[in-house]
């Protein structure tokens, strides 16, 4: 019934998480109607650059522009090279950076352990974290996984893996809403959780 380009756009939107066919159609017609402000072109350009213009940092696995050798945090010599804050997702880095207090490095796992979803340590960047720590410069690892069952399980697993190393392992203080994502926590809550971090035993 609909012209092919419209149907294609609806089908593509409908493949996104949380977007059903109705919303996909609404978004498509919104774009059609907002032609005058060039939103479709901007969106098309952004989507093309999304893949070609980005990469992951070879050190911490945070997102970076593809024309960089490492992310802006790893490339910054004023960052404290002795502390690594371990998070689940790149957006968690962004959330913690907004507090402007943490000056160490990060390590992005790209997920959390989940037996239900079949996510094992091999699916996360845990091996790479241990490789970084083996270099011997790190004195503290802050576990900043989400306050959820998966986040806690991941934190506990990391703690076990880090037992053999001569370093302090801390966990963000409680106070973050349980089951919530770090990236949605407000700055003050995150700041308190970071400042009040406690050594795991
Ligand atoms: Zn990096």
Indicate the structural class: alpha/beta
The ordered H/E elements are HHHEEEHEHEHEHE
Give a quick account of the main beta sheet: strands, pairing sense, barrel closure. 5 strands, mixed
Task: State the share of residues found in helices, binned by percent.
Answer: 25-40%
Ligands present: zinc ion
| Count of extended strands | 7
Rg over alpha carbons: 20 Å
Please report the distance between the alpha carbons of the first and last residues: 64 Å
Overall average residue pLDDT: 92
Runs with pLDDT <50, length 5+? none
What global shape is seen? Answer: elongated
Notes on the structure:
The protein has 201 residues and is an alpha/beta fold. The chain is built from seven helices and seven strands; from the N terminus they run αααβββαβαβαβαβ. The strands form two sheets. It has a five-stranded mixed β-sheet with strand order 4-3-5-6-7. A two-stranded antiparallel sheet has the order 1-2. Helix 4 links the parallel strand 3 and strand 4. Helix 1 packs across helix 2. The radius of gyration is 20 Å and the shape is elongated. The N and C termini lie far apart (64 Å). The model has no long low-confidence stretch (mean pLDDT 92). It binds zinc ion. The site of zinc ion has 8 residues, from loops.
């Amino acid at each position: 019934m609909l012209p092919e380009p419209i149907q294609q756009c609806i089908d593509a939107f409908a493949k996104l998480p949380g977007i059903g066919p109705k919303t996909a159609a609404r978004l498509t017609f919104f774009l059609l109607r907002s032609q005058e402000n060039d939103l479709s072109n901007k969106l098309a350009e952004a989507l093309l650059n999304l893949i070609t213009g980005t990469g992951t940092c070879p050190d911490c696995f945070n997102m970076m522009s593809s024309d960089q050798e490492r992310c802006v945090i790893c490339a910054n010599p004023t960052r404290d090279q002795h502390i690594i804050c371990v998070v689940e997702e790149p957006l968690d880095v962004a959330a913690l950076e907004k507090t402007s207090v943490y000056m160490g490095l990060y390590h992005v796992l790209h997920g959390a352990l989940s037996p239900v979803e079949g996510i094992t340590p091999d699916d996360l960047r845990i091996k790479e974290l241990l490789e970084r720590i083996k270099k011997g410069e790190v004195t503290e690892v802050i576990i900043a996984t989400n306050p959820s069952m998966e986040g806690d399980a991941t934190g506990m697993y990391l703690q076990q893996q880090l037992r053999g190393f001569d370093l302090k392992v801390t966990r963000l203080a409680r106070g973050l809403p349980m089951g919530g994502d770090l990236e949605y926590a407000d700055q003050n809550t995150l700041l308190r959780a970071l400042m009040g971090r406690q050594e795991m035993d």
